[in-house]
Write a structure and sequence with these properties.
With 394 residues, the chain is mainly α. 69% of the residues lie in helices and 1% in strands. A hairpin with a 2-residue loop joins strand 1 (151-152) and strand 2. It starts with 15 loop residues before the first helix and ends in a 5-residue tail after the last helix.
């Protein structure tokens, strides 16, 4: 593998952050153009304006254009790169994209040999980056309905603002629009696989709210419960990391061996991220208003770790849910040790994933670009572990 130890060009590393910002600003511009294409009424050739047209346009604006704009345009709570004077889009907080990391890794940085010859690849990657972002927005709209989440990133969820029917319609529309925008057949196939994976993982997650699945989990041995969680998390959360990279490498024609390395790394990052999400339900400083909200289902890894010590009568009665589950878990003598052990597991999964990706990085600049991209959440995984080590907030 062409890891950074084999191809090291330390020159220009200090400018990597600026390039990350520039690529992120490019994505935001492309996303704005995409959004405009979805929310601009089509020209009515050969038709004069009328009261009927005005009424139709007004209804279309409320029922389609407004929820689409809200779904795609929300930025609250998602800032990754703080505003920087003199940087591209310096006044706007920006989110880096792993799609652009793949492009930089496999097609080079400005000024490097070959970079100027990759215009067609850059166009495909730009479309893929927009499609990935829009598919993630669609997933948020649909997941919030399924999870009954009224708040997303600190603001009302789409279905709270516009109602469930319009939120469902908006999420569905965004999926089809994103796939059409991707255009490149190989990228579309990759994105379709991501959609399938994500919906499969969500189905399993939602099923843990049913009495039958809860009973099966309670009766299963620990090893089987953990395997269940890993399979679900790899699809539900791992796909969020896998999708941008697989779409990008599909556009760029990356060799199969490296794709497998990236696939496994993204799976590990997904597991680390899901562990972080599960653990923050017990750490007020991280979970915020969502703390202690998972007790209606058995998908949280912490619950699955502690089930064996639940009283047999409570396990067999089917009552280990809601308030009874909350009382059992929060009062468990091994809760603190379990949180710390799982936090350490998340840190190790993240470390292993990032080491694997560095193994396919073409240069030190590429490795730095990836670090900047991932650490927007990765540093929180480390901070949570450090917090639990100190015995704080648990």
């Amino acid at each position: 593998m062409p890891g950074v130890s084999k191809v090291s060009d330390g020159s220009g590393i200090s400018g990597v952050e600026d390039l990350v910002r520039s690529d992120a600003a490019l994505l935001e511009d492309d996303l704005a153009a995409f959004l405009a294409s979805l929310t601009t009424p089509p020209a009515r050739q050969g038709q004069g304006s009328s009261a009927t047209d005005s009424l139709y346009d007004a209804v279309l604006g409320r029922s389609l254009y407004a929820p689409v704009a809200d779904a795609v345009g929300s930025k609250v709570g998602q800032e990754a790169l703080a505003p920087a004077a003199g940087a591209p889009a310096g006044r706007a907080p920006l989110r880096p994209s792993m799609v652009f990391w793949a492009y930089r890794n496999y097609r080079g940085f400005p000024g490097e040999a070959g970079e100027e010859d990759s215009g067609a690849d850059l166009a495909a990657v730009r479309r893929a980056a927009v499609a990935v972002r829009v598919l993630l927005k669609a997933a948020v709209a649909l997941d919030d309905i399924q999870d009954g989440s009224g708040i997303r990133y600190g603001e009302p969820a789409l279905h709270v603002t516009h109602g469930i029917p319009l939120a469902l319609n908006t999420g569905s529309l965004l999926i089809t629009a994103a796939l059409e925008h991707a255009a490149e057949p190989a990228v579309v196939r990759s994105l379709l696989e991501s959609v399938r994976r994500g919906l499969t993982g969500q189905a399993v997650d939602v099923s843990t709210r049913t009495a039958l699945t809860r009973a099966e989990l309670v009766a299963a041995p620990l090893g089987e419960r953990i395997a269940f969680w890993e399979s679900m998390a790899a699809l539900k959360t791992g796909t969020l990391f896998w999708m941008p990279l697989d779409a990008a490498v599909a556009a760029l024609g990356v060799v199969e061996d490296e794709r497998r390395v990236l696939d496994e790394a993204m799976r590990d990052l997904g597991l680390a991220s899901q562990l972080f999400n599960d653990l923050t339900d017990f750490v007020p400083g991280y979970g915020g208003r969502q703390t202690h909200e998972d007790f209606g289902q058995l998908s949280n890894r912490v619950f699955l770790e502690l089930l064996d010590s639940a009283p047999a009568g409570l396990r067999s009665s089917g009552e280990l849910v809601g308030a009874r589950l909350k009382e059992f878990v929060l009062g468990h003598p091994d809760l603190g040790e379990t949180l710390l052990r799982l936090a350490a597991e998340a840190v190790e999964l993240k470390r292993s994933a990032m080491e694997a990706v560095r193994g396919v990085c073409r240069s030190e600049r590429s490795a730095r670009y990836f670090d900047v991209t991932i650490e927007r959440k990765g540093h929180l995984i480390d901070r949570l572990h450090a917090t639990l080590l100190k015995g704080e907030d648990a």
